[in-house]
Write a structure and sequence with these properties.
Layout lengths: L6 H17 L2 H8 L6 H14 L17 H13 L7 H14 L2 H12 L5 E4 L15 E5 L2 E8 L10 E7 L11 E7 L5 E7 L5 E14 L3 E2 L5 H14 L4 H17 L1 E2 L2 E2 L4 H29 L8 H23 L9 H6 L13 H7 L10 H12 L4 H4 L4
Parallel strand pairs: 1-4
Antiparallel strand pairs: 2-3, 3-7, 4-5, 5-8, 6-7, 9-10
Helix pairs in contact: 1-4, 4-8, 4-9, 5-6, 5-7, 7-10, 8-9, 8-10, 9-10, 10-12, 10-13
Bound molecules: flavin-adenine dinucleotide.
Amino acid sequence: MKINLTVEEKAFEANVKDFLASELPSNIKQKVLQGRALKKEDHVRWQKILYEQGWAAIDWPYEYGGCQWSAIQKHIWAAQCAISAAPEVIPFGLDMVAPVIYTYGNDAQKERFLPDILASNVWWCQGYSEPEAGSDLASLKTTAVIDGDYYIVTGVKTWITYAQHADWIFCLVRTGSPQTVNNDALSFLLIPMDSPGITVTPIISMDGAHEMNEVVFENVGVPIENRIGEEGKGWTYSKTLLNHERAKLAHVAVSKNRLQELKKAAHDTLTGHGSLMDDPRFSAKLARTEIELTALEFTEFRTLIAESNDTDPGPESSILKIVGTGVSQSIDELFVELAGLYVLPFIDPESAEKFAGTQIIPKQTINTARLYFNNRKASLFGGSSEIQKNIICKDVLGFDLNEKRGEK
Ligand SMILES: Cc1cc2nc3c(=O)[nH]c(=O)nc-3n(C[C@H](O)[C@H](O)[C@H](O)COP(=O)(O)OP(=O)(O)OC[C@H]3O[C@@H](n4cnc5c(N)ncnc54)[C@H](O)[C@@H]3O)c2cc1C
């Protein structure tokens, strides 16, 4: 997609390029380029650099520390970050709980939580899913029962990303009487992770990474003042959050950059008939992925413009999530196809970095296997692809699934 930039926008782009060239630490950039996992301290270091620049929370309202950037400026920022291999911001504080706090929290909560989120002084995690409540989130069973000035929270949350690093967890919990039906009984609580009664147990994913955890709450006392908004309105608040979360999951700029790397690697990969780019099957798949990515970029742009006009991303964000996931997984698959047999040695990143011999596969494919396996998760977190299709059907197309099934 080609955008004709104004003089001011070109100056902004130059400013962003200069900033990224001078401020992005080279060791963090190298890790991103090699597809290696970043440590907590890498993320915090980069987010604090953004904070110092005033660019940590580009989507927040200006009064709380946002940037007041136009849709074009946000587009330029995302594109330049991807080209410069800057890490994506960890979303749980800045992009997920913060919009709920500044939209539905009281003044005391805004003052207490937003500055530390903005400065990345605290690390947050998201406590929604439970062993029997993932897609059907409203059936969650973790209870919060009032006792004096406290809620006593009991239950199990699962798949919680980066809970091992978190200072706070934002949770959907079941409040009110047991008779209150599903959505109307959910409340939104902010809970310190060092509260007595919380246990965090690692869940290791198939790429060997420790990102997810089970978090068990045993009679954890949480001050009532840590509830956001009204009791029983947690579902409404969390829907806003999920729309923001999904709108961020398209990863267009990152996919565009990876696609360019894929093309370079395909040009460098020789076959019996020229390079892999000359292989009609491979180049047809690559072209289809590129076309989908371009269409996605237009859709993302429409969402950015809507957000610039202070409109909630809405259920259309499901389209971004589902297509963005499909495109990034197609790119993973094409990298695997390109690397062929050489993708099999599942080298740990530290050893790969120390390797001094001749590289027999393009450098872009060193971490192909890790990325391929790790990125399978994208079809699940933030709501599975099937659930996104249901949302698009019902809330975007206005199609009643129950009526179609004859259940009405
Ligand atoms: C890597 C990773 C990180 C995550 N991080 C977090 C986190 O930080 N915090 C958090 O709260 N959660 C997190 N999750 C959980 C995530 O939100 C859930 O995995 C997701 O909502 C799906 O729930 P489930 O795993 O229980 O699957 P289920 O709901 O049991 O679904 C199983 C399968 O059935 C399909 N299915 C279910 N219902 C329907 C339906 N009505 N129509 C069609 N198909 C259906 C689903 O699409 C899926 O394929 C994470 C998950 C992953 C994989």
